[in-house]
Amino acid sequence: MGSAGTSETERVAIARRSLFRGGWPQATVGALVTALCVGALGQSVAFVAFLADAFPGASAAQAARYGGALFYVFHHVGMAVHSPDLHLADDADRVLGWPSGRAVDAVIAFALLSGTAVVMGLLIRAGRSAGEAVGGPELRRVIHGAKVAVPYALLSWSASWALSFQVSIPDSSPMSAHPSHIASFLWPLALGAVFGGVGGIRSAGDGMWTSPWLWATEAWPRRWRGALAGGMSMLGLGLVLSLAGLGVAAASEPSIAASYAGTVFRPGVGTGLMAVLLALLALPNVAAWILVPAMGGCLEVGGGAGTSLPSFCFLSYESFFGRPLPGTFNHFWGYPELGQPPRAWLLFLLVPLVAVMVGGALAARRAEARGRWEGLLVGAMAGGIFAVLLTGVLILAAVTARFEGPLTDVATGYFRYGPYPPYGFELALGWGTLGGATGGFLRAVVSGGATRFARRPAPS
């Protein structure tokens, strides 16, 4: 009896040691492959722009530094920027509310979400490889998959010390920049832990939905599986429909598209091509920034120089940046007050409505909802997942600028551009749970009616 107890204790100790010591070779290889692939993407974009003469007078080495900067931008790592006399082309610094004409030290952070999506996919793949190599129960696979985060963050942090570059923008003051060293560790660590862990549990295949260790009954894994599929569908469909709606709006106002093209290509074809490449990488950002106003939220600027100011809304169903009101003045930000958008913009209400109802119906279908109320429940659960996912996208899509200096200097402050993530969460939760529940309920009603019709005996 004592021998059996000792043997069991030894097995538990060995399992614990392997949990913390095992899996590191696979995690390190996965992190290295991910870093190389993401770095190659950044270099590809930079050298396409370099060959198109987007950086007049820049060397190949300078273009390579820009490609390295894109690696960090894909991870939402802020860039520490110094300018001895801040000035941007076309007075963009004044439009943004930044301390113009002063020496500034700032950290500017944003993510180009097309590149971030590539990062996420590669980290999931790396975590899945680590989970498959180690095997075992689902939680064990998650932990081993998340181990990708540690070598990945160390690689990013180490490389950040070797990267610094000069930012040359036409008609702008000279600027020097380098990645924020703290952020270059923390953001890759967070992304690696989350998406490496997702890959780890995905390595279990259907086992994550059938494991008796995770689930006491068969009903809840079926429901959560459907809710996850529905929530992801809500987000994907909402972003796609937002871009489609923006395309229709741009087509109805060709002067806006012509003005944009004239602005970006005015410095030269190469500069315009670089702007187009960056716009393509930022398409998910644009979609998220349209989706929140479509749900009734606001595309805004918040923060302020030296103190926190009330946010200013550029785009909502009450404010439209294309309709400044003559003779008005917002004394907090210096912008003119804005009028309402054209009535046709109310059609954007269809974007979240279609997205959440279709997502709720897909959730009920995937969950094989057994009755109307289960369909309603699964649709509402999908709405909760949609709210969490959209909040994560909004955090990554936000543009922030933090200026550092003496507290008495106006060259201090914090600025945030984009929808406010907590408000986005509230809106997505409301739309998602109500619309998802409605879609799930209707799907269950339709499928229940079809089942009864199929079971009706044929007339003799």
Strand content: 5-15%
| Strand segment tally | 8
What is the count of helical runs? Answer: 16
Query: From the helix content, strand content and strand pairing, which structural class follows?
Result: alpha+beta
Helix content: 55-70%
End-to-end distance:
71 Å
Radius of gyration equals: 26 Å
Broad shape: globular
In the predicted model, the low-confidence regions spanning at least 5 consecutive residues are 407-411
- Output mean pLDDT: 85
Sheet with the most strands?
A: 8 strands, antiparallel
List SSEs in N-to-C order.
HHHEHEHHHEEHHHHHHEEHHEEH
Describe it:
- The structure is a single chain.
- With about 450 residues, this protein is of the alpha+beta class.
- The protein is about 60% helix and about 10% strand.
- It contains 16 helices and eight strands.
- An eight-stranded antiparallel sheet has the order 3-4-1-2-7-8-5-6.
- The chain is globular and about 65 Å long.
- The termini are far apart.
